[in-house]
Each structure stands twice: as structure tokens, then as C-alpha cells.
Amino acid sequence: MANTRDLLDTTPGACDAPCRDDAPVAIAAPLPRRARQATLAWGARLVTVGGAAPVRVQSMTNTDTVDAIATAIQVKELAQAGSELVRITVNTPEAAAAVPHIREQLDKMGESVPLIGDFHYNGHRLLTDFPACAQALSKYRINPGNVGRGDKHDKQFGQMIDAALRWNKAVRIGVNWGSLDQDLLADLMDANSRRSVPWQLRQVMYEALISSAIGSARRAEAMGLDGDQIILSCKLSGVQDLIAVYRALARRCDYALHLGLTEAGMATKGTVASTAALAVLLQEGIGDTIRVSLTPQPGQARAQEVLVATEILQALGLRAFVPSVTACPGCGRTTSTLFQDLAKQIDDFLRDRMPVWRLRYPGVENLRVAVMGCIVNGPGESRHADIGISLPGTGEAPAAPVFIDGQKAMTLRGDNIASEFHQLVERYIEKRFGAMAAPTV
């Protein structure tokens, strides 16, 4: 009787020439992006989006913008977590009046992160009536579905573009499936009814999103706005819908693109859905700035959405924000929770220290740390890391070998393994990355 391997080898089409190819397996990597590059500025701080720039992380506050102090504090927290752009709601005259004070508070705190104004319905009036607000922002978010209907649409959209031209600001033309341009959608529905083979309703909606975004961008360019200063987004809440729309959007224009799954949800659902959608697009070279729109759980910090966004980019190899900690999931070999406690302690320690280390130790974000729970994969993973520890599993000798730069450096024993390894990591960072921070003449 033939064994399983023989059956697999002789099944037609199951394993032809590629199975016997001597060529190496291709290394996976995200495809290159091809968008134009926009520049957002505040003072001497410049943040580029698109072109050869890294994929940028942004977030949005959930404070009442009228409360300038609370909003400024949250903006700084988001920026320190890794958000390179922060959006704030500007929905009332009181909110518009508060924007310059928010910017002033941030400047006093030494935080130069660019602010984005999120406008709907009345942005044309707020940007006109509050020039200090228009000047304090670095970018305006315009939703073409919420700038008026009929004759008012073009006029009010034009007023917002005029403000961007006057103050030399970038804009994001952000279309959302929950607030589509109803006149455009009606026209597309009429055209679809006349097709010999009508499109599905969802396909008409896709076209409405894309046409609204690109058409609005072309209108802004016709008014004099530099196309390099335009960023587009077409947000939906379905993973497959978002992928379909952005693939088409990327084929049909070269504006910088903002990615985000709108209304992604809470906790695991929001995290998984956002990751599933964004990872596919980023791997295909689509997307120049991202936001993970998580609904915070009660008491949860707003910065959680920033952490998820940075983890997505770091997992894909597109960016490095904080040192990575490799830790095994645990099994029957690891009845002790020591490796779990140590992994969390190290991860928290690295994240807490990053705002200081970013300035003091250039390159520290590329550090790789391993905290493993038993002898099976522990030594191997620790050798692959810059610094790693293999803790004893169930029934193993109470010893924890430490590996530094691929070589076994020492063995820790006793009740203070966690604190001793903590100190080793800190000394390793200072020794390796501190030298890189030495001033050059």
C-alpha cells in the first residue's frame, strides 16, 4: 500500500515543478507605495505623509474640545504613545474658539504634534469666522457628504478649500459610507438602472465613495490647492468592503491615502477587524497613514488605539516603535506564571520608558527581547533575540540562562530572577544604544 507521501506526490497537480524547484522561497515584504507626498507642519515640526515617508499613525481625541486643558492633555498622551498626527472635533463656535488655546497649551508643554480639525456641516463658517482656529490647525478634514446639498455644496466646499489656500494647510477629503453625498448617489443609482446588466447595490455604493473622494479632490485642485496637499479616505465598517474600495481607489488615483475601518468596535472585535483590513491593504502597498478606530472600554485609555496601530505596522515590518518582546503562550510545561509576569513587566517597562529613550538612545525601538517559559523553544528564541531569558518549566532545573547577542552570557537563579533580568535589559540598552547617541562634530 502506498504511503501518504507517495499519494501526495503522484496526485495530478498536487506537486509539480515548484515542489522540486531549487530556487529559494521568496521573502515576503509589503509592496512599495506610490502616492504623492503631503506635508503637515507646526512650527519647525514637519510630518510627511505619502511618497517615501513611513506609514504614519494618527488618532483622535474624545474630550470636549471646548475644554482646552483636558484636550491638550489627551493630545499629548496620544502623541507620547506614538500618534504622529492627532485629530480633534471642531463642531461649534465654542470648539473653534478653543482650538488656538489647545495649540498654545501644547506648545507650552513642548508638544509640537500637528493638529487636524474634524469638520462636518458647518466647517465653512467656522474656518471663516475663526481665523485663529484655521491657522492653529495643520490639516482640515472635510467630508464632502456633509458640506451641504444642491447649490450650497460647491459653495461651502469651496469656502473650506479657500481657507486651506489662505493658511497653506493640507486637507483630508474623507468620505464615509454613513454620510455619502446623496445627490451623487442618486445620480449613480439612476445611471445604474439604465445598464443592461445593473451593478449590485453595494457596487454602486463603492463607486459613490470613490467618485466622491476623487471628484472632490479634482475640484479642490481646480480651485488652486496643490494635489500634493490632498489626502483621501473612503471609510467603511466592513473588512471586505474596505479592501475592495481601497484597491480601486489606489488604482484610480495617486493621492496619499488615509486608512481606517470606521466604527470598528470595542476590544477584541475592533482590534481584529481593523488589523484584518489594514494588514491586507498595507501588504499590497496601499495606505500612507492609518487610524484604528476603537471604542474604548470603560476606563480604558484613549491611547489603546494608537498602540494597536503601531503594533500593526511593526508586525508587518513597516515601522519600529518600541522594542519587541517575544514570549511563549504557555502550555502544560509551564505551570508557573513567572514567564508571563516577567514578559508583561518587561513590555510595560519598555513602553513606559520609550518617550525618554527615543531621545536618548536612537535605534532602541529595534531592540528584540525574548522571555520564554521552558527548554523547548526557550534557548533558541533567546539566541535569536538581542537579549533573552529562558525560564525553567515544570520539572526543569531552577535555572534561567540569559543570552546576549546570540551568546549565553550567564545563568540566573534564586528568587530575584525577574528583577535581575530587568536590570540586565536596562544596562544592555544603555551600553548598546547609548553609544549611538554620542554627539557628532
TrEMBL record:
Its EC number is 1.17.7.3. GO terms for molecular function: 4 iron, 4 sulfur cluster binding; 4-hydroxy-3-methylbut-2-en-1-yl diphosphate synthase activity (ferredoxin); 4-hydroxy-3-methylbut-2-enyl-diphosphate synthase activity (flavodoxin); iron ion binding. It is an enzyme of class 1 (oxidoreductase). Keywords: 4Fe-4S, Iron, Iron-sulfur, Isoprene biosynthesis, Metal-binding, Oxidoreductase. Coiled coil: none annotated. Its cofactor is [4Fe-4S] cluster. InterPro entries: Dihydropteroate_synth-like_sf (IPR011005), IspG_bac (IPR016425), IspG_bac-typ (IPR004588), IspG_C (IPR058579), IspG_TIM (IPR058578), NO2/SO3_Rdtase_4Fe4S_sf (IPR045854). The keyword Transit peptide does not apply. Residues 47-309 form the IspG TIM-barrel domain. Pfam families: GcpE, GcpE_C. Belongs to the IspG family. Converts 2C-methyl-D-erythritol 2,4-cyclodiphosphate (ME-2,4cPP) into 1-hydroxy-2-methyl-2-(E)-butenyl 4-diphosphate. This is 4-hydroxy-3-methylbut-2-en-1-yl diphosphate synthase (flavodoxin). It comes from Verminephrobacter eiseniae (strain EF01-2). The gene is ispG.
